[in-house]
Amino acid sequence: MRALIWLIGIFALAAGVAMLASVNDGYVLVVVPPWRVQLSLNLLIVGLIIAFVSAYAVLRVIRRTMALPGRVVQYRERRRKEKAGRALRDALRALFEGRFAQAVKFAGAAFSDGDNRSMAALVAARAAHAMRDDTRYRIWLGKSAEQEDESRVARLMTEAELAVEGRRFEEAAEHLENLRLAGHRHIAALRLSLRVASALARWDEVLRTARQLHKHKAMSEDQVRSVLRRAHLERMRELAGDAEGLAAYWREIPADELNDRRLVERAVPYLAETGQGALARRTLERLLDAEWDSGLARLYGYCCEGDAVDCLARGEKWLRMYPKDAGLLFALGRLCLNAQLWGKAQSYLEASLNLAPSIETHLALAGLLERLERGDEAQGHYRAAAQRSAA
């Protein structure tokens, strides 16, 4: 339809021009002594148009001819870039397929011919590292470093990741610190930082990084709870001989992290060993009131130094709800020992021992019986504890 409209338009234009030419009686006289030429005005107009078109065509030909060397250079450059781009894509595919030697080969071609020289060098470095070829790995990293402005962040991330894979954690930490100083703290870098800090036993850094990852929703609740638990326990283990330091550290733990029952269960013995068990008393009471746990109840006996009577009243209140809980009975026995209620202590410990025999219960009873000068019975419990320990 469009072609038909154009055709009709052209014919209409031609008809219009022919009608104008038929009524135009003008002429042009050209005098070039000794010649005189008389032309019709219509012929002159047609001649001028033809001359203009011819001159324009000649100039276009000349211009294209002169631009031909440049166009050839552009064509070759375009072909070079296309070839390098294909080589880089082939290198990436070979790297992901596990054909590392081919990846190095293709990446080398892309590095020689392409503009993405840094990316090609990093691909070659990864492939060489996967082949355990440390020499070529270092060479390609050096070539990538030469393109500093283009790929610094990518290079540092690659070096950090490959250093972690090679268990060179100090080297990885250095690269990650350079990234941090440059303001790059994205999720991938934080994850690497968490692995490195954990491997280097930098537990304060582990805590900070894990909290950041959880804030950015890069770790689930279960994952961050496990990481935080380990970091807290390792840090408390390091402070095990420092009662004041351990107490200060416990107070700094956020309340929401103390909702982790496994953390509290494993942390209380560290506190108790340094005489700081009372710090965990309120936490244990809150957790036990929210949901009963025999393991936590067992630890309650270590958390009431200096206030055994009040704790004993709280424990006996729980006992009315859980009369057959061996952990709670053991805790009540220890509380009675602290309050010097020897008879009640013995009855609670023996009740706990009947429900669930344990080394701790045997030892607590043995210590009590020695105080009561019942050495033979105490020796029996010591032997029972030793047998359980050896089993």
Verbal overview:
With 391 residues, the protein is mostly helical. Helices cover 77% and strands 3% of the residues. The protein has helices at 2-23, 41-97, 100-113, 117-130, 134-145, 148-165, 169-181, 187-199, 203-215, 221-238, 243-252, 261-273, 281-290, 294-299, 308-321, 326-338, 342-355, 359-371, 375-390; strands at 27-32, 35-40. Strands 1-2 form a two-stranded antiparallel ribbon. Helix 3 packs antiparallel against helix 4 (117-130) and helix 9 packs antiparallel against helix 10. It is elongated. The termini are far apart.
The succession of helices and strands, N to C, reads HEEHHHHHHHHHHHHHHHHHH
| Anisotropy-based shape | elongated
**Structural classification:** mainly alpha
Which strand-content bin applies to the residues? under 5%
Number of strands: 2
Distance from N terminus to C terminus (CA atoms, Å) equals 98 Å
Number of helices: 19
Main sheet attributes: strand count, strand direction, barrel closure: 2 strands, antiparallel
Low-confidence residue ranges: none
How would you write the strand order of the largest sheet?
1-2
Helix content: over 70%
**Whole-number average pLDDT?**
85
